[in-house]
Amino acid sequence: DDAFLNAVRRKSGYVFATLHNAPGIESVTGLGLMVGIKTVKPAKQVVAECMEQGVLCLTAKDKVRLLPALNIPMDVLSRALEVLKKVCAE
Description:
Layout: H1 2-19, E1 25-31, E2 34-39, H2 43-52, E3 58-60, E4 63-66, H3 74-89
Antiparallel strand pairs: 1-2, 2-4, 3-4
Helix pairs in contact: 1-3
């Protein structure tokens, strides 16, 4: 469905734009909503701190990995990214 795919593209663009050059984030890579984030802090520490604040993410080697559902509501995605940015910047 074109509308669904366009929504996923918008969300993906939002994720990359929000995290690009954010304090504590070295790089953001990935495709669509499969996102790898190289952080200044160790990835395991970032994941643990995010989980304490209600945001579930993973590690993939030395990166934080985001794999949200493609139909994630924008308000939930936005809140999760704000938590992630805050944790990375501390």
